[in-house]
Amino acid sequence: MVHKIILKSQKKILKNIFMVKVPYFVPEISAKEISAVSKVLNSKWISAGKILLKCERKFEKKLKVNQGHCVGVSNGYSALYLAMLLAGIKKNDIVLMPNINFVASMNAAKQLDAKIKLIDSESAFNPNISITDLKKKLSKKVKALVVMHYGGYPCDMDELLKLKKKYKFTLIEDSCHAIFSKYKGKILGSFGDFSAFSFYANKNLTSSEGGMLYCKKAKDVSKAKILKNHGLNTNSFLHKNQSFHARYDVEQVGFNFRLDDLRASLLSSQIDNIEKKNYLRFKVFLEYKKNLKENKKISILFSEFSKNEFSRHLFVIKTNFKKLLEKKFKKKGISYSCHYKPINQLSVHKTKEKFPNSENLFKTIISLPIYPGLKKNKIKDICKIINSI
Ligand SMILES: Cc1ncc(COP(=O)(O)O)c(C=O)c1O
């Protein structure tokens, strides 16, 4: 009976998805990318192998970091979890992180039994981590700080690096939104001791599911490679080339956080095109800005970031008429989202602490559709609704 009800509601959801006039996101997979995946399928080697290795090297070049310092993993969460584990986080260690973020960092730190302190957003217009609140909560006892570059817009890296020098915490960048965004000319995700990327379906780069971990120190790369593969001191690609090796052993209590050649082939092919795709997102950003410029009832987050050097993962407006707008979007079949419900308001992570800026943001922000293939006429339709409130 319950199963039948679930199936019925799934059917309804699917029907609604196809009724939507403007989806929130549409992944774009080119013929070249499909052909790259087919090639791997036909090669008879689909698990982690040389395609993944090539893809990691390609990613490092874009990130402008040392060769051999990126490790492909199964998703953004596993990259974050490994980063925390390699940072040595264990029971009761203090970890700071933003209150406005996807829940992955919080879950990872909780899995490690860390003591988590949440930090408010910079302002009611900027969801990135507040340096003022951070300074209040920092001490020499803090083991790690996680920052997330919201929508691909940089946190205040100069201030964060100064604080890192003073307090000596491990800096972990959640760079899942920031595919090759820049801060003062340097690529985000290359500042921290560790950095995590997600290649989930709605990300600027996708392999359907997938992730990348960047480790500043070479010794952490070696550990990550072992931990992501059950703790084994070998992998099946080496087996293929060397047959069973006599020193086969399990050195760590590991995980299965692997990324395979099939997904890596899609990712690798997408990396070749990322500048063009990010540029098309920039054009979407400009088009929204143009269509909304007379509207005094909304403001656009990060609208002053006018150069083409950000990933533009999100396009977020802020309005006191959020509920009304949501109603209108639903009626007209416009999909939207909200990034994010503050972590301290999620049932499983609830706290009574006050975070005025994140609370204000949650009440007032709406994420609008943004993707390279979003056409001007659709943007106009969306803006027409926004301009009617
Ligand atoms: C900011 C942020 N952090 C972490 C994650 C987790 O990535 P994944 O879903 O690949 O585990 C996501 C993805 O949704 C994200 O947007």
Could you describe the 3D structure shown?
This protein is an alpha/beta fold and about 400 residues long. The chain folds into two domains: about 30-270, Aspartate Aminotransferase, domain 2 (3-Layer(aba) Sandwich); about 275-385, Aspartate Aminotransferase, domain 1. It is about 40% helix and about 15% strand. It has 14 helices and 14 strands. It has helices at about 1-20, 30-45, 50-65, 75-85, 105-110, 130-135, 155-165, 220-225, 235-240, 260-270, 275-290, 320-330, 355-365, 375-385; strands at about 70-75, 95-100, 115-120, 120-125, 125-130, 140-150, 170-175, 180-185, 185, 195-200, 210-215, 300, 315-320, 365-370. The strands form four sheets. A seven-stranded mixed sheet has the order 1-11-10-7-6-2-3, sandwiched between helices. Strands 12-13-14 form a three-stranded antiparallel sheet. Strand 4 (about 120-125) and strand 5 form a beta hairpin. Helix 11 runs parallel beside helix 14. The longest helix has 19 residues, at about 275-290. It is globular, with a radius of gyration of 22 Å. The N and C termini lie far apart (about 45 Å). The mean pLDDT is about 95. The structure holds pyridoxal-5'-phosphate. Pyridoxal-5'-phosphate binds near residues 104, 148, 176 and 198. Pyridoxal-5'-phosphate binds near residues 176, 177, 198 and 211.
List the helices and strands and how they pair.
Layout: H1 2-19, H2 31-43, H3 50-63, E1 70-73, H4 76-86, E2 94-98, H5 104-111, E3 115-119, E4 121-123, E5 126-129, H6 131-137, E6 142-148, H7 157-167, E7 170-174, E8 182-183, E9 186-187, E10 194-198, E11 211-215, H8 218-227, H9 236-242, H10 261-271, H11 274-292, E12 298-300, E13 315-319, H12 322-332, H13 356-364, E14 365-368, H14 376-387
Parallel strand pairs: 2-3, 2-6, 6-7, 7-10
Antiparallel strand pairs: 1-11, 4-5, 8-9, 10-11, 12-13, 13-14
Helix pairs in contact: 2-10, 3-10, 4-5, 11-14
Bound molecules: pyridoxal-5'-phosphate.
Residues 75-77, 101-102, 104, 148, 174, 176-177, 198, 200, 211 line the site of pyridoxal-5'-phosphate.
